[in-house]
């Protein structure tokens, strides 16, 4: 693969902004000093395609694309430039794309790889923020904190909380079953260990180092074995064709008669219809979801149930996370164009071999 020579000119980078920017001062300064930034301002994806197809247009001769901003932010929330039709129009001049976010299910990495374009995500940039939310959702699934706050804020319902001693439980002594024990899972596990919970997990491979850091965590080779012992199931695996609807009508049969469920990974990993069914049957007695199968649309049975904590995919949402996203993206660009040519967080690493 060909690496740009920065001694000839500054690499030309298409920068996708958001309307309420958060910048890391040093990273933002570096980005502006070392690169020629071209501001993305298209009204639609179709406009982007027209602009980037014009060999003499303002998006001509791009070397890279940087989307270090929030993927859910306005005004480009619905602009999916790295998949579908838009990605097919990227010019051959583009060598690398850097993006915020840990997951990359809205990116056609296989197609980018076929074109020789590197894609870099921003892993671990939001691990602390997401783990904090995960810990809160685990706690709320046991203690029904959303329901309690609803009672406070709704006139005449203050004493409806009298039901809580009959349904709430201490997390202490219960088992948290984690599906996908990475950095975020480790942080949630550490916090829940402090609450007195037992930690179990299922992963593609065993993680002895994390087990040691947790001073004990039980590994299960199969999902079925993990679900059988878990009082609260925490979903943290990537969304792939293999994990789509990993939690479904069948896997609920593997769970305890009374179970809790938390998802802070990706919505489609959990089949919403199966969740609603388990609630109606009384098997799912508590839950917390920061992500949803059809977000932003959520089933009315979940919206109307204040014993379920629902968040609008905000696990990442701290100032610290977005400053780290920007640092990670800029570091990848600098390393590629001005350093070793090998960015730090490349997903399709086979292109570097």
From TrEMBL:
It holds the Pfam family 2-Hacid_dh. GO terms for cellular component: cytosol. SUPFAM superfamilies: Formate/glycerate dehydrogenase catalytic domain-like, NAD(P)-binding Rossmann-fold domains. Keywords: Oxidoreductase. Residues 166-315 form the D-isomer specific 2-hydroxyacid dehydrogenase NAD-binding domain. One of its GO terms (molecular function) is glyoxylate reductase (NADPH) activity. The keyword Oxidoreductase applies. Residues 88-348 form the D-isomer specific 2-hydroxyacid dehydrogenase catalytic domain. InterPro entries: D-isomer_2-hydroxyacid_DH, D-isomer_2_OHA_DH_cat_dom, D-isomer_DH_NAD-bd, NAD(P)-bd_dom_sf. Belongs to the D-isomer specific 2-hydroxyacid dehydrogenase family. This is D-isomer specific 2-hydroxyacid dehydrogenase NAD-binding domain-containing protein.
């Amino acid at each position: 693969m060909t690496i740009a020579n920065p001694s000839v000119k500054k690499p030309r980078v298409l920068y996708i902004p958001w309307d309420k920017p958060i910048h890391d001062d040093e990273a933002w300064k570096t980005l502006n000093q070392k690169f020629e930034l071209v501001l993305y301002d298209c009204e639609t994806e179709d406009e982007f395609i027209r602009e980037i197809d014009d060999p003499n247009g303002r998006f001509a001769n791009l070397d890279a694309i940087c989307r270090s901003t929030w993927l859910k932010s306005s005004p480009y929330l619905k602009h999916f430039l790295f998949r579908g039709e838009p990605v097919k129009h990227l010019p051959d001049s583009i060598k690398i794309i850097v993006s915020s976010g840990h997951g990359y299910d809205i990116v056609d990495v296989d197609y980018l790889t076929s074109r020789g374009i590197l894609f870099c995500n921003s892993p671990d940039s939001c691990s602390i923020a997401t783990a904090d939310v995960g810990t809160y959702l685990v706690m709320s699934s046991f203690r029904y904190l959303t329901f309690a706050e609803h009672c406070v804020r709704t006139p005449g319902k203050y004493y409806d909380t009298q039901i809580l001693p009959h349904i709430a439980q201490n997390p202490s002594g219960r088992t948290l079953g984690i599906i996908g024990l990475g950095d975020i899972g480790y942080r949630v596990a550490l916090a829940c260990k402090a609450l007195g919970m037992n930690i179990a997990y299922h992963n593609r491979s065993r993680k002895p180092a994390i087990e040691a850091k947790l001073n004990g965590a039980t590994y299960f080779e199969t999902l079925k074995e993990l679900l059988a012992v878990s009082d609260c199931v925490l979903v943290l695996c990537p969304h792939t064709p293999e994990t789509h609807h990993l939690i479904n009508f069948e896997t609920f049969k593997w769970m305890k008669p009374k179970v809790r469920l938390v998802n802070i990974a990706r919505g489609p990993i959990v089949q919403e219809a199966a969740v609603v069914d388990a609630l109606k049957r009384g098997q799912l007695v508590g839950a917390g979801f920061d992500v949803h199968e059809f977000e932003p649309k959520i089933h009315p049975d979940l919206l109307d149930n204040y014993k379920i904590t629902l968040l609008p995919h905000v696990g990442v949402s701290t100032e610290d996370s977005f400053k780290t996203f920007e640092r990670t993206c800029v570091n990848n660009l600098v390393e590629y164009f001005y350093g070793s040519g090998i960015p730090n967080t490349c997903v399709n690493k086979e292109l570097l071999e």
